[in-house]
Amino acid sequence: xxxxxxxxxxxxxxxxxxxxxxxxxxxxxxxxxxxxxxxxxxxxxxxxxxxxxxxxxxxxxxxxxxxxxxxxxxxxxxxxxxxxxxxxxxxxxxxxxxxxxxxxxxxxxxxxxxxxxxxxxxxxxxxxxxxxxxxxxxxxxxxxxxxxxxxxxxxxxxxxxxxxxxxxxxxxxxxxxxxxxxxxxxxxxxxxxxxxxxxxxxxxxxxxxxxxxxxxxxxxxxxxxxxxxxxxxxxxxxxxxxxxxxxxxxxxxxxxxxxxxxxxxxxxxxxxxxxxxxxxxxxxxxxxxxxxxxxxxxxxxxxxxxxxxxxxxxxxxxxxxxxxxx
Length: 326
Prior knowledge:
The chain contains 8 helices and 19 strands. By secondary structure, it is of the alpha+beta class.
Protein backbone atom coordinates (compact mmCIF):
# COMPACT_ATOMS: atom_id res chain seq x y z
CA UNK A 1 0.00 0.00 0.00
CA UNK A 2 1.05 3.56 -0.63
CA UNK A 3 1.58 5.74 2.47
CA UNK A 4 -1.23 8.11 3.27
CA UNK A 5 -0.98 11.80 2.44
CA UNK A 6 -0.84 12.57 6.15
CA UNK A 7 2.09 10.17 6.62
CA UNK A 8 3.96 11.70 3.70
CA UNK A 9 3.48 15.20 5.11
CA UNK A 10 4.76 14.02 8.49
CA UNK A 11 7.85 12.49 6.89
CA UNK A 12 8.61 15.68 4.98
CA UNK A 13 8.10 17.77 8.12
CA UNK A 14 10.57 15.56 9.99
CA UNK A 15 13.21 16.25 7.34
CA UNK A 16 12.77 20.03 7.31
CA UNK A 17 15.03 20.78 10.32
CA UNK A 18 17.90 18.82 8.79
CA UNK A 19 17.45 20.51 5.41
CA UNK A 20 17.33 23.94 7.03
CA UNK A 21 20.49 23.15 9.00
CA UNK A 22 22.26 22.03 5.84
CA UNK A 23 21.23 25.18 3.97
CA UNK A 24 22.37 27.35 6.87
CA UNK A 25 25.76 25.62 7.01
CA UNK A 26 26.29 26.17 3.28
CA UNK A 27 25.28 29.82 3.55
CA UNK A 28 27.53 30.29 6.58
CA UNK A 29 30.60 28.79 4.90
CA UNK A 30 33.20 31.53 4.73
CA UNK A 31 33.82 33.14 1.36
CA UNK A 32 37.37 32.73 0.09
CA UNK A 33 39.68 35.51 1.13
CA UNK A 34 43.31 36.18 1.96
CA UNK A 35 44.67 34.85 5.24
CA UNK A 36 45.12 37.48 7.96
CA UNK A 37 48.44 39.30 8.10
CA UNK A 38 50.75 38.63 11.05
CA UNK A 39 51.23 42.39 11.38
CA UNK A 40 48.43 44.93 10.72
CA UNK A 41 50.86 47.08 8.75
CA UNK A 42 50.97 44.32 6.13
CA UNK A 43 47.21 43.84 5.95
CA UNK A 44 46.88 45.92 2.76
CA UNK A 45 49.15 43.55 0.85
CA UNK A 46 47.94 40.31 -0.75
CA UNK A 47 49.67 37.05 0.21
CA UNK A 48 52.37 35.08 -1.55
CA UNK A 49 51.14 31.60 -2.52
CA UNK A 50 52.86 28.48 -3.82
CA UNK A 51 56.55 27.62 -3.68
CA UNK A 52 59.32 27.69 -6.26
CA UNK A 53 60.20 24.36 -7.87
CA UNK A 54 63.00 23.08 -10.12
CA UNK A 55 63.39 20.46 -12.84
CA UNK A 56 66.65 18.75 -13.73
CA UNK A 57 66.89 18.20 -17.49
CA UNK A 58 68.11 14.73 -18.39
CA UNK A 59 66.65 14.34 -21.90
CA UNK A 60 68.89 15.91 -24.60
CA UNK A 61 65.82 16.38 -26.80
CA UNK A 62 64.04 18.59 -24.23
CA UNK A 63 63.58 22.31 -24.73
CA UNK A 64 62.29 24.94 -22.33
CA UNK A 65 58.99 24.71 -24.24
CA UNK A 66 58.73 21.06 -23.19
CA UNK A 67 59.42 21.96 -19.57
CA UNK A 68 56.76 24.70 -19.60
CA UNK A 69 54.19 22.34 -21.12
CA UNK A 70 54.91 19.49 -18.68
CA UNK A 71 54.28 21.77 -15.73
CA UNK A 72 51.45 23.68 -17.49
CA UNK A 73 53.36 26.94 -17.11
CA UNK A 74 53.72 29.82 -19.54
CA UNK A 75 56.78 29.70 -21.79
CA UNK A 76 57.74 33.36 -21.40
CA UNK A 77 57.72 33.17 -17.59
CA UNK A 78 59.94 30.07 -17.55
CA UNK A 79 62.36 31.62 -20.06
CA UNK A 80 62.61 34.91 -18.10
CA UNK A 81 63.36 33.04 -14.90
CA UNK A 82 66.21 31.18 -16.59
CA UNK A 83 67.95 33.90 -18.63
CA UNK A 84 71.24 31.99 -18.96
CA UNK A 85 69.62 28.86 -20.42
CA UNK A 86 69.36 28.31 -24.17
CA UNK A 87 65.61 27.77 -24.51
CA UNK A 88 65.97 25.61 -27.66
CA UNK A 89 69.08 23.57 -26.84
CA UNK A 90 69.51 23.50 -23.05
CA UNK A 91 72.40 21.39 -21.85
CA UNK A 92 71.46 18.06 -20.21
CA UNK A 93 71.97 18.39 -16.48
CA UNK A 94 70.69 21.98 -16.47
CA UNK A 95 68.43 22.85 -13.55
CA UNK A 96 65.40 24.82 -14.75
CA UNK A 97 63.77 27.06 -12.17
CA UNK A 98 59.97 27.01 -12.32
CA UNK A 99 57.77 30.06 -11.60
CA UNK A 100 55.37 28.25 -9.28
CA UNK A 101 55.23 30.93 -6.59
CA UNK A 102 53.01 33.99 -7.02
CA UNK A 103 51.74 37.14 -5.36
CA UNK A 104 47.96 37.09 -5.63
CA UNK A 105 46.65 40.11 -7.59
CA UNK A 106 45.41 42.99 -5.45
CA UNK A 107 41.69 42.45 -6.03
CA UNK A 108 38.71 40.87 -4.25
CA UNK A 109 38.84 37.07 -4.06
CA UNK A 110 35.83 36.30 -6.26
CA UNK A 111 35.21 34.91 -9.71
CA UNK A 112 38.00 34.80 -12.26
CA UNK A 113 40.87 37.29 -12.28
CA UNK A 114 43.32 37.67 -15.16
CA UNK A 115 46.48 39.72 -14.83
CA UNK A 116 47.29 40.38 -18.46
CA UNK A 117 51.03 41.25 -18.30
CA UNK A 118 51.59 38.32 -15.93
CA UNK A 119 49.86 35.99 -18.42
CA UNK A 120 48.05 34.13 -15.65
CA UNK A 121 44.46 33.51 -14.63
CA UNK A 122 43.44 33.13 -10.97
CA UNK A 123 40.34 31.07 -10.24
CA UNK A 124 38.60 32.13 -7.02
CA UNK A 125 35.36 30.25 -7.74
CA UNK A 126 36.25 27.29 -5.52
CA UNK A 127 36.05 27.55 -1.72
CA UNK A 128 39.71 26.78 -1.26
CA UNK A 129 42.33 28.47 0.86
CA UNK A 130 44.12 29.65 -2.28
CA UNK A 131 43.08 30.30 -5.88
CA UNK A 132 44.12 27.91 -8.62
CA UNK A 133 46.49 29.52 -11.12
CA UNK A 134 46.42 28.90 -14.88
CA UNK A 135 48.95 29.97 -17.52
CA UNK A 136 47.45 31.86 -20.46
CA UNK A 137 48.31 33.39 -23.81
CA UNK A 138 47.24 36.98 -24.46
CA UNK A 139 46.85 39.35 -27.39
CA UNK A 140 49.83 41.15 -28.85
CA UNK A 141 50.42 44.90 -28.88
CA UNK A 142 48.46 45.28 -32.14
CA UNK A 143 45.46 43.30 -30.84
CA UNK A 144 45.76 43.63 -27.05
CA UNK A 145 43.63 41.73 -24.57
CA UNK A 146 40.86 43.54 -22.76
CA UNK A 147 41.01 45.41 -19.46
CA UNK A 148 38.17 45.90 -16.99
CA UNK A 149 35.29 44.16 -15.22
CA UNK A 150 33.08 41.68 -17.08
CA UNK A 151 31.03 38.54 -16.52
CA UNK A 152 31.31 35.18 -18.22
CA UNK A 153 28.88 35.20 -21.13
CA UNK A 154 27.78 32.42 -23.46
CA UNK A 155 29.66 29.11 -23.27
CA UNK A 156 30.20 26.66 -26.13
CA UNK A 157 31.71 23.19 -26.44
CA UNK A 158 33.57 22.33 -29.64
CA UNK A 159 33.13 25.84 -31.04
CA UNK A 160 33.48 26.66 -34.70
CA UNK A 161 35.78 29.57 -35.45
CA UNK A 162 34.12 32.29 -37.49
CA UNK A 163 37.22 33.96 -38.85
CA UNK A 164 37.11 37.75 -38.36
CA UNK A 165 37.48 39.80 -41.52
CA UNK A 166 40.67 41.39 -40.18
CA UNK A 167 42.28 37.96 -39.88
CA UNK A 168 40.96 36.88 -43.28
CA UNK A 169 42.74 39.91 -44.72
CA UNK A 170 45.99 38.76 -43.08
CA UNK A 171 45.51 35.10 -44.01
CA UNK A 172 43.34 34.83 -47.12
CA UNK A 173 43.92 31.07 -47.27
CA UNK A 174 41.59 30.62 -44.28
CA UNK A 175 37.94 29.67 -44.88
CA UNK A 176 35.20 31.91 -43.43
CA UNK A 177 34.44 29.24 -40.81
CA UNK A 178 36.87 26.70 -39.33
CA UNK A 179 34.97 23.70 -37.89
CA UNK A 180 35.90 22.01 -34.61
CA UNK A 181 39.04 19.91 -34.87
CA UNK A 182 42.84 20.06 -34.86
CA UNK A 183 42.96 23.12 -37.15
CA UNK A 184 40.68 25.18 -34.93
CA UNK A 185 42.66 27.61 -32.71
CA UNK A 186 39.75 27.89 -30.24
CA UNK A 187 40.30 24.37 -28.95
CA UNK A 188 37.49 22.34 -27.37
CA UNK A 189 35.86 25.01 -25.16
CA UNK A 190 34.88 28.68 -25.36
CA UNK A 191 33.62 31.12 -22.71
CA UNK A 192 32.65 34.58 -23.90
CA UNK A 193 34.06 37.61 -22.13
CA UNK A 194 30.91 39.56 -21.29
CA UNK A 195 29.04 40.47 -24.48
CA UNK A 196 32.21 41.04 -26.51
CA UNK A 197 33.56 39.02 -29.41
CA UNK A 198 36.49 37.89 -27.24
CA UNK A 199 36.66 34.72 -25.21
CA UNK A 200 38.57 32.42 -22.90
CA UNK A 201 39.27 29.26 -24.86
CA UNK A 202 41.60 26.36 -25.57
CA UNK A 203 44.19 26.03 -28.31
CA UNK A 204 45.51 23.92 -31.16
CA UNK A 205 49.06 25.07 -30.34
CA UNK A 206 50.27 24.20 -26.85
CA UNK A 207 53.55 26.09 -27.43
CA UNK A 208 51.68 29.40 -27.62
CA UNK A 209 50.68 29.45 -23.95
CA UNK A 210 52.57 32.07 -22.01
CA UNK A 211 53.10 34.32 -25.03
CA UNK A 212 51.53 37.26 -26.84
CA UNK A 213 49.96 34.90 -29.34
CA UNK A 214 46.27 35.77 -29.84
CA UNK A 215 44.19 38.52 -31.41
CA UNK A 216 42.97 39.60 -27.97
CA UNK A 217 41.42 36.41 -26.61
CA UNK A 218 42.67 34.48 -23.58
CA UNK A 219 44.04 31.05 -24.49
CA UNK A 220 44.71 28.12 -22.10
CA UNK A 221 46.07 24.59 -22.32
CA UNK A 222 43.21 22.33 -23.42
CA UNK A 223 43.11 20.13 -20.30
CA UNK A 224 43.08 23.21 -18.09
CA UNK A 225 40.37 25.06 -20.01
CA UNK A 226 38.27 21.89 -19.80
CA UNK A 227 38.48 21.94 -16.00
CA UNK A 228 37.80 25.67 -15.85
CA UNK A 229 34.87 25.40 -18.28
CA UNK A 230 33.20 22.63 -16.25
CA UNK A 231 33.09 24.64 -13.02
CA UNK A 232 32.59 28.19 -14.30
CA UNK A 233 28.99 29.31 -14.67
CA UNK A 234 27.63 31.93 -17.02
CA UNK A 235 27.48 35.18 -15.05
CA UNK A 236 30.66 34.47 -13.05
CA UNK A 237 32.49 37.74 -12.34
CA UNK A 238 35.59 38.23 -14.48
CA UNK A 239 38.17 40.96 -14.02
CA UNK A 240 41.09 41.63 -16.36
CA UNK A 241 43.84 43.61 -14.65
CA UNK A 242 47.02 45.26 -15.86
CA UNK A 243 49.43 44.96 -12.91
CA UNK A 244 53.06 44.86 -14.01
CA UNK A 245 54.24 45.16 -10.39
CA UNK A 246 52.60 43.37 -7.47
CA UNK A 247 53.44 43.86 -3.81
CA UNK A 248 52.79 41.02 -1.37
CA UNK A 249 53.51 39.54 2.03
CA UNK A 250 54.51 36.27 3.61
CA UNK A 251 54.91 36.10 7.38
CA UNK A 252 56.70 39.39 8.22
CA UNK A 253 58.43 39.77 4.86
CA UNK A 254 57.56 42.19 2.05
CA UNK A 255 57.75 40.91 -1.54
CA UNK A 256 57.60 42.36 -5.03
CA UNK A 257 56.80 40.52 -8.27
CA UNK A 258 57.55 42.25 -11.57
CA UNK A 259 56.48 41.47 -15.14
CA UNK A 260 57.27 43.18 -18.45
CA UNK A 261 55.10 46.12 -19.44
CA UNK A 262 53.93 44.26 -22.55
CA UNK A 263 51.62 47.02 -23.81
CA UNK A 264 53.77 49.95 -22.60
CA UNK A 265 51.00 51.24 -20.35
CA UNK A 266 52.93 51.58 -17.08
CA UNK A 267 55.83 54.00 -17.69
CA UNK A 268 55.89 55.32 -14.10
CA UNK A 269 55.72 51.97 -12.37
CA UNK A 270 58.94 52.34 -10.37
CA UNK A 271 57.88 55.68 -8.96
CA UNK A 272 54.37 54.36 -8.28
CA UNK A 273 55.57 51.37 -6.27
CA UNK A 274 57.83 53.54 -4.13
CA UNK A 275 54.93 55.92 -3.49
CA UNK A 276 52.64 53.05 -2.49
CA UNK A 277 55.18 51.58 -0.10
CA UNK A 278 55.66 55.00 1.45
CA UNK A 279 51.89 55.52 1.77
CA UNK A 280 51.59 52.17 3.57
CA UNK A 281 54.41 53.11 5.95
CA UNK A 282 56.52 50.19 4.68
CA UNK A 283 59.25 52.00 2.75
CA UNK A 284 61.60 52.29 5.78
CA UNK A 285 61.68 48.48 5.97
CA UNK A 286 62.50 47.99 2.26
CA UNK A 287 65.95 47.54 0.71
CA UNK A 288 65.60 50.04 -2.12
CA UNK A 289 68.50 48.62 -4.13
CA UNK A 290 66.94 45.13 -4.10
CA UNK A 291 63.59 46.62 -5.15
CA UNK A 292 65.10 48.54 -8.06
CA UNK A 293 67.02 45.44 -9.20
CA UNK A 294 63.84 43.34 -9.08
CA UNK A 295 62.03 45.93 -11.23
CA UNK A 296 64.89 45.99 -13.73
CA UNK A 297 65.17 42.19 -13.96
CA UNK A 298 61.39 41.54 -14.15
CA UNK A 299 61.87 37.82 -13.53
CA UNK A 300 58.19 37.24 -12.73
CA UNK A 301 58.57 35.64 -9.27
CA UNK A 302 58.16 37.09 -5.76
CA UNK A 303 61.38 38.69 -4.50
CA UNK A 304 61.84 39.51 -0.82
CA UNK A 305 62.65 43.22 -0.52
CA UNK A 306 62.39 43.71 3.26
CA UNK A 307 60.74 42.62 6.49
CA UNK A 308 59.08 44.11 9.51
CA UNK A 309 60.95 43.52 12.77
CA UNK A 310 59.46 40.97 15.14
CA UNK A 311 57.62 42.50 18.10
CA UNK A 312 59.56 42.70 21.33
CA UNK A 313 58.98 39.72 23.61
CA UNK A 314 56.83 40.56 26.65
CA UNK A 315 58.69 40.78 29.98
CA UNK A 316 57.42 38.28 32.54
CA UNK A 317 56.97 39.16 36.21
CA UNK A 318 60.34 37.72 37.25
CA UNK A 319 62.12 39.65 34.52
CA UNK A 320 60.30 42.85 35.44
CA UNK A 321 61.31 42.45 39.11
CA UNK A 322 64.93 41.92 38.13
CA UNK A 323 64.89 45.10 36.09
CA UNK A 324 63.47 47.05 39.05
CA UNK A 325 66.17 45.68 41.41
CA UNK A 326 68.96 46.56 39.01
